[in-house]
Each structure stands twice: as C-alpha cells, then as structure tokens.
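U., I forgot to send this yesterday:
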Amino acid sequence: MNVIYDIGNTVNKLAVYDNGKKVISLRTREHSCEKLRDKVSPFRLDKMIISSVRELPEFMYDLMSVDIPLVHIFTHKSKLPFRNEYKTPETLGPDRLAAVAGAYSHFAGEEVLIIDAGTAITYDYLSGKNYKGGNISPGLSMRFRALHKFTDKLPLESVSGEYTFPGKNTADALKAGVITGVVYEINEYIR
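Result:
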C-alpha cells in the first residue's frame, strides 16, 4: 500500500492507496504523529511520498525511518515526466509541482491550466511536455484578513453564510467583493 501525504500551509492531507484505489483519506489542520499513526497503522505500507510547503515536522522523520520501507520527499529535484521551465525551481512549491505532475498523468501532451485554491490560489501552466510556470494570488481567507488588518474599521468576515450582491451592508459588501473577485479572477485565467 502507498501513502500520499501533503503538508500544506493550512491543511494537511493524507491518503492511503491499495493497488490504485483510495482506502482512506484524512484532512486535518494538526501536525500530530499520533493521529497519523492511528490512521495508517492498520495497513502494511510499502511506499510514501510527501509534499510539504513547510519544514517537515520532527515526528515525520521517526515515522519514515521505522514504519515505511520506501519514502520519497517530493522536491524540485524529484524525477518528473515533463520539462520544468521555471527559472528558479528551488523556490517552486512542491505542492504546485505535484499538482502539475498529477495533471500531466491525466492529460499528457495537452494544454492544461491547474488551479489550486487554498491559503493561496495558484495557477500553473502545462503545455505538452513543458511546465511553463504559473502565478500565485491570495486565497479567500487571506483576502478577508487583509481587508480587516489593513483598514481601521472593516470587520473580519469569512466565506460562510449567505450574502447579497451587490452588498447592502458592510459584511455583504466584503463577502461579495472577495468572493466575486476570486470568481472573476479564476474565470479570466480560464479564458
């Protein structure tokens, strides 16, 4: 069985696969060895691949050295089935590179725009066998926090709940502005 573990800025994702079929998956904001061990301990694990935008937590080294025979930490130095044209590959997030690799495995040889909306929204371009690069934009929560932090009186809002468009009060105006702005941004990239 194989494990994929993605350590993100906000959320960590783990999945266990058996012969290409997902057996379990977990999304958490915690970096906990116990929780990870509890999820994977019922399985005999052969391989693990880790993509992390942060420094690996110490417990990962213990887990990797004891329980899983083959572990690969995905970086810009990992073997890729496409050409990476990014000028500074060492600064390219492994999460973005992994998303491009995933897109390539499904759409090899095609023109592909990969959009990943998390803490940041990333746009990456795959053209045939060449990764052309991409762009990074603030995610929804970051936009709400920026409006709150860099103004005197705007409240901190979030995506949850309904709102009117156009906004008829400050909360709705913030939600409509941020959410509609992201929708327009994504649509413009797609176009």
